Input
Amino acid sequence: MTDRPPYRIALVAGEPSGDALGAALIPALRERARGPVEFLGVAGPQMCAQGMTSLFAMSDLTLMGLAEVVPAIPKVLRRLRRTARAVEAWQPHAVVTIDAPDFCFRLAKRLHGRTAGPLIHYVAPTVWAWRPGRARRIAGRFDHLLTLLPFEPPYFQREGLAATFVGHPVAERVGPPADGGAFRERHGIAAEAPVLCVLPGSRSGEVRRLLPPFGEAVARLASRFPGLRIVIPTLGHMADRVAAAVSDWPGAPVVVGPDEKAGAFAASTVALAASGTVSLELALAGLAQVIAYRVNALSAVIARRLLVTRWVSLVNILADATVVPELLQENCTPAKLEAAVAPLLADPLARRAQIGKAAASVAKLHAPGGNASRAAADVVFGLIEERSRSA
Output
């Protein structure tokens, strides 16, 4: 053990996905430091469980929709000023902002040139999907960008921002195979029954918009597939709401929390899921899937003007082909959902074909060194050491 003063690293997360990334990054930074590390910034419950104290509740920044955002603007600006003052006063060896671009990019603008340590952002904005001009706008605010996807660095490097692909953390979460048989037995699902895993999203707006068409599609499928059972993994805070909404669905729906999600995947035949990271999780779990999404009409009009990618599922984007069916907006109807799911429920060969292609696609997400958090920590400390040598 060294007697040197602790490294000081500021970490700022603004939403649950960033909290999860930060919680994995903290022990990797401690390991890479080979000595004491102190953390300051904005953290959620997972980062706090790793021993970090947050300047304020991260939930102050987790806002969705105009009805929530507009009234909260003064409070968010106060939080922004408080964070900037605290970090500047602390003068950390590095500042790592994690996702949450609306907050983190404004914070970086305030801190630029005011801290001795490098400014690093973790999770690239999706300039390859929409608003490509963002790459140029953030290039002058950060010293380095850590990306989750292998094709992202060139978008930023050509704007003068150094960027490193460190791997996608979802690829690290694959543990021992879950016991699908035990899950079925626990929940009274017959061994031979077809099972549809329904994932309507993690946000209240997603659940509100997707459960009705998903429910009608389930009713159609239940009439075609005798004995069809439904399992619905969801977040703990959404469980009661989801259970109430699906209580009249056919298929005796089983609603489970995050701790049973892997078992639900292993027990299922096919998944019907909202677009998002879960598409990668399903591919890594070897479960055939159909992806769907629906937003309000105004958001759809804006998205169509801004989107520059053919697909929304990262499985398809990584493959540069339609591996997973995508039913978006006006195509997210009960009849079309039924038509996409039914062939996969009926045909084991169709399921195996999709699973094989999806596995090849998500294999590209693995970190160059095998662990995304350690790869990110290596970059952070490489920049700290480089800055120290040049000081």
About this structure: Residues 66-90 form the longest helix (25 residues). The two ends are 25 Å apart (CA to CA). The chain has two domains: 7-167+367-390, 180-365.
